[in-house]
Amino acid sequence: MTTAVRRYPVLVALVIAALFMVLPFLIVTMNAVKSPAEYSANGPLSLPDGLYLDGLKDFWERVDFGQKLLNSVLVSGAVAALAVVLSVLNAYAIGIGRIKGRTWVLAFFVLANVLPQEALVYPIYYLSKEAGLYDTRLSVIIVFTVIQAAFGTYLLSAVLGQFPREIIEAARIDGANKWQVLWRIVVPVSRPTIGVLLVFFFIWTWNEFLLPLVMLISNDNQTVSVALGVLQGQRLMDATMTNAAALLGVLPAIVFFLVFQRTLTRGIAVGAVK
User: Fold this and answer.
1) Which residues of 154-163 are buried (b: 16+ CB within 10 A; e: fewer)?
2) What is the pLDDT of residues 81-106, one digit of tens each?
3) Is-contact 240 34, C-beta < 8 A?
4) Of 44, 200, 203, 258, which alpha carbon lies 20 to 30 A from 151's?
5) Architecture of domain 64-235 in this structure
6) CB half-sphere exposure, 124, CA atoms < 13 A
7) Which of 194, 209, 198, 192 is nearest to 273 (CA)?
8) CA 267 to CA 197: how far, in whole Å?
9) What is the Cα–Cα distance from 181 to 187, expressed in whole angstroms?
10) How many other CB atoms are there within 10 angstroms of residue 179's CB atom?
11) Residue pair 194/88 in contact by the 8 Å Cβ criterion
12) CA 219, CA 227: separation in Å to the nearest integer?
């Protein structure tokens, strides 16, 4: 009975925290389906009288949101997949292969994680210009693959460093080479952690703004986050269209998170058990 009573404050605190996180999204959703007149008359906290979808439609057409959405999906999906593969390969060499200077290599990846993106803007801009990749989606994919893989390598190296050596030795005795050990043993066992990284990499890349803003100046190459920032900086929009823009910008990431929620939960649970 005492244990149950002690859980109530924690439950109440979690419910309050969830409300604080969900409430802004609900307010944005309500205002996105209001007409400008209704918003002016009743304010942002009133419930909508009906569904006014002209704001969503006008914003979609104004920024060619379908193209921006496709760009963000391509960039985020490619970065997530490539960064996970690169992280697995690096972590396999560091965590299981035990390369020389392992500590210094991991320190380098930690440094890559804490380095602010503002310090990378000019070098990346200059190198992309020299390589002929400026204002291409490929340039952003390459940059964020390296950045995300630095974190993934650091995390997976710690996980694979604790991988049971007996399993690996047994596989080698059975005739498995290094690639077979990696893809048939290490990757399947580490799949929950890899799944978590895949979800995080996609969402992190989707929300990136500074580097895509600098690297993607053409309207056909811009991502969703850049399109939202550039539009609000250059053109005047009413409040309902602004909320419609925010809703359309965050909704795909929420859908992706909900689709892969079980993968994320399972990965975190497995990590906690370990």
Assistant:
1) bbbbebbeeb
2) 999 999 999 999 887 866 777 778 88
3) yes
4) 258
5) Orthogonal Bundle (1.10)
6) 24
7) 192
8) 9
9) 9
10) 9
11) yes
12) 8
What is the residue extent of each domain of the chain? 64-235
Token digits of residue 195:
């799944």
d(CA 222, CA 161): 40
pLDDT tens for residues 104-156? 888 888 887 788 888 889 999 999 999 999 999 999 999 999 999 999 998 89
Question: What's the CA gap between 37 and 84, in Å, rounded?
Answer: 48
Handedness of CA 267, 272, 273, 274 (dihedral sign): positive
Cα gap 246→225, rounded to integer Å: 9
DSSP for 171-202, written as a single string: HHHTT--HHHHIIIIIHHHTHHHHHHHHHHHH
Cα 159 off chain centre by: 21
**E strands within the chain?**
none
Residue 155 φ/ψ, nearest 5 degrees: -70, -50
| Confidence (pTM) | 0.86
The CA distance from 160 to 92, in Å, is 7
State the DSSP H helix or E strand holding residue 65, giving kind and residue range, or none if neither.
helix 65-91
